[in-house]
Specification:
Radius of gyration: 20 Å
Largest sheet: 7 strands, mixed
CATH class of the largest domain: Alpha Beta
Number of domains: 2
Structural class: alpha/beta
CATH topology of the largest domain: Quinone Oxidoreductase, Chain A, domain 1
Strand content: 25-35%
Length: 374
């Protein structure tokens, strides 16, 4: 079988991407699904900073690689052993497959699946297979999904079934932006009604963290980003105040507003400066959660004694500390009830051929979520 896909052949790539065109639209050979694998006809895929970070070299990955990890589609074929899905089912793709047997999976922490992390790092599906190739040369999978393509073969462990009346452009966001942003608030931080929350970095994931904090009943939801349009959108989504971190007085103003700092600060920018800002605005006894994926070479510096003397918590959140099979249906239900209006985050859409131009919009901050129609 053939599939048309956006393939990254080398990284890092130089901006503007509309000129350097790091993602090449190619026809690839796609092998049929093997045991515990599924062939999916991709219908919509979201362009995320995690894709951009592979293109710009912040997240080194083996190349050539077919990118894309936030998507939804329709099941077209089932590999041996898959009995809980049927052809025609609508599914959301999840960027961390979980084996169900390793220590983190056994603890109920599938986002930390050890075989899944190994497979994602080397560019294979969960079972160690590659189903993509070109002229006999293997093409790597992006976090087990490779969704910037007409079709994808993925592990059954990378899929969550959803109702067919959920629009594909909305369903796609639940696989990454919603799962990661809302999950960081409700799962990792465990925000309770009445607590104060700040979100630093208002991309698609950060704005979902804002939505999650509002849905959780936070008494103050403070949005922080250097882009005014993003701050304005956050306020329309329910943030009670917004600040530009470039304002030297911003941190002091937030601490004053919240009488000493927020209960929970969630950093979603993938930036050392953003994380240090989040830590500065967290109150004594509070929690600073980071879900932004920074360059592995970047290091943070914090006052070590504050962790002890102020009983502070600094905690990572990967995939929103989520259990996708549990959380995606819950978040879809909140969306249907009007409590997670994720449709307001869709800023543009277009065909696969325009993906490099869309990368530029994502990099310069003018796009929240661009949907690729497939």
């Amino acid at each position: 079988m053939k599939t048309r896909a956006a393939v990254l052949e080398q990284s890092p790539a130089q901006r503007p991407y509309a000129e350097s065109r790091p993602l090449k639209i190619m026809e690839l050979d796609l092998a049929p699904p093997g045991p515990d694998e599924v062939l999916v006809r991709v219908k919509a895929a979201g362009l995320c900073h995690s894709d951009l970070s592979v293109v710009n070299g912040d997240r080194p990955r083996p190349v050539p690689m077919a990118l894309g990890h936030e998507a939804a589609g329709i099941v077209e074929a089932l590999g041996p052993g898959v009995s809980d899905l049927a052809v025609g089912d609508h599914v959301v793709m999840v960027f961390m497959p979980s084996c169900g047997h390793c220590a983190p999976c056994a603890e109920g922490r599938p986002a930390l699946c050890e075989p899944g992390a190994v497979a994602n790092g080397v560019g294979t599906l969960l079972r160690g297979t590659r189903r993509l190739s070109r002229h006999g040369r293997a093409v790597h999978h992006h976090v087990g999904v490779s969704a910037f393509a007409d079709r994808a073969v993925v592990s059954r462990r990378s899929l969550v079934k959803v109702d067919p009346d959920l629009p594909f452009e909305h369903a796609a966001l639940f696989g990454c932006a919603v799962l990661t942003g809302v999950g960081a608030v409700v799962n990792t931080a465990g925000v309770q009604a009445g607590q104060t929350v700040a979100v630093i970095g208002l991309g698609g994931v950060g704005l979902n963290a804002v939505l999650g904090a509002v849905a959780a009943g936070a008494s103050e939801v403070i949005a922080v980003d250097p882009v005014a349009a993003k701050r304005e959108l956050a306020e329309r989504l329910g943030a009670s105040a917004s600040f530009n971190p470039g304002d030297e007085a911003a941190a002091a103003r937030i601490r004053e507003l919240t009488q000493g700092g927020v209960d929970v600060a969630v950093e979603m920018a993938g930036s050392v400066r953003a994380l240090e800002f989040a830590y500065r605005i967290t109150r004594r006894g509070g929690a600073t959660v980071t879900g932004g994926l920074a360059n592995p070479a970047h290091l943070i510096g914090i006052q070590q004694v504050s962790l002890v003397g102020e009983e502070r918590t600094l905690k990572g959140s990967y995939m929103g500390s989520s259990i996708p099979s549990r959380d995606i249906p819950r978040y879809v239900a909140l969306h249907r009830a009007g409590r997670l209006p994720i449709e307001k985050l869709l800023t543009s859409r277009g065909p696969l051929e325009e993906i490099n131009e869309a990368l530029d919009a994502l990099a310069d901050g003018s796009a929240i979520r661009h949907i690729i129609d497939l």
